[in-house]
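Hmm, what's this shape?
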Amino acid sequence: MIATNDNDDQTKEESKKERITIVLNEKDLIESFVKGSGNGGQKINKTSNCVDLRHVPTGVRVVCQQTRSLQQNRSIARKIMIEKLDDYYNGDQSKSAIKREIARKREAKRRKRAREKYGATNSKEETSIE
C-alpha cells in the first residue's frame, strides 16, 4: 500500500506566506524632534532637525539626521521605518532580506568560480572536495 502525503503539500503552501504590504498609519507613529549632533556645523547644533520616529504597536524606533533639513529627515525616517517594519512583519520575504540573499548567492558564486580557477588553497578543503 502506498501512502500519499497530503499534509506535505499543505505545509509547503503554508510556508510560502504572502508578503504583507506595509502602510504607515500616522496615528501609530510618535514623532519627536531633537537637536542634532556631529558634522554639519552650527546649523546642526542649534536646530532641532534630528527626527525620532517610533511605531507604537511594534516598538520599532528610527532616528534620522542624514541632512540638515527637517523635512528631508522626516521623509527619510519614514522610508527607513517602512523598511524596518517590512523586516519585522515579513522576515525572510522582506525586500531587504531578498536583496541580502541575492548578494550572498552572488558572493558564493564568485568564490566558487575563483576556487575552480585558482584551486583550493587550504589542504583541508582539498581533502573534503575529493
Summary: The CA atoms of residues 20 and 90 lie 6 Å apart. The longest strand covers residues 29-34.
